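The data layer described in this paper is built around a simple, fixed record for each protein. Because each token names a local backbone shape, the row as a whole describes the fold. We quote a single record here, exactly as it is kept in our systems:

***
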Amino acid sequence: MSGIRIEALRKHYGAARGIEHLDLEVEEGEFFVLLGPSGCGKTTALRCIAGLEEPDAGTIRIGATTVVAPARGVFVPPNRRDLGMVFQSYALWPHMTVEQNVGYPLRARGWPRDRARAAIARALALVDLGGLGNRYPGELSGGQQQRVALARAVVAAPKLILFDEPLSNLDAQLRARLRQDLRRVHRETGHTAVYVTHDQVEALALADRVAVMREGRVEQLGRPDDIFLSPATRFVAEFVGYDNLFEATVEQSGTDGVRVALGGRCAPLSARSSARLAPGSPVHLAVRSNRIRLGKGAAADRRNSLDVRVLDAAYLGDSYQCTVQWPGGRPLLAQVPADLWKQEGAALMGGPAHAFFPQDELVALPAGDGGRQ
């Protein structure tokens, strides 16, 4: 068994809080991602699982074994936790060949030479580095070095592999390729994985489940599509790409969503919400810029629309990102496909227009939880 159970974990660094109170359960064979900004506690949590940090309180169990319990004086050292780890910096020894780097965990475990040689060959083949075993790290590209680090992590067939932002030093194209490699290796080996990142694209592409962390606690836990489509708080919404947030007041609340008032001459809007929101309560409305549709003319006869004026447009390649002003609020962002902008952009720029918000894409969130830290 290689599931992980964390209960009431706390780790402080003097007056600074790394983890305040963390409860998590990772299922056996799951690819679990800890997502959050710098300083949220995700790497501290990973290092506590690995045994590279000793927490102040709480318990950690890996499978049936308690590896951390400060109250009982339990602390199992890293080399006895049967895990592999892939670091952001690769952590390869420059004076060792690829084969020697990959085989290091086997030598530390005292594996016989023939058995180790076969395991190294399997691990290198798994990460598409067969034939490069005699090279040194300095002779490899960044992507190849990271695959060597992955091969080293899996070579001893540990039940648990930990990843500490392993792709953050690579360019975008290479990150996309290695994300595919990580998922493939996970499918083929069946190990349990805990992966730390600040990149929402990585989290969505890799995870079976995601925990969004904030100030040493879990802000929201769920499947990637739950996090992406149904953020529970303003903080989560901002972090997963909702680039428009504005205030409103609940007028009506029902099973299929809420109707909100914006004030002034603006017509009410309908939005969805996963929380119970009472009439009269303040909310944050969140919507992605690429979900807003712009059109010519006024919005008076169109449901879930606002009258706007397009102030500016920036070319993004396949779309134009427009800054639009609406009565009573700060400007919003809206994206128009490039081919549509070629047809309607001149008419939209500066003149009266309407911004349409599909109800399923406009999310009402309880006010008062703050924003990104």
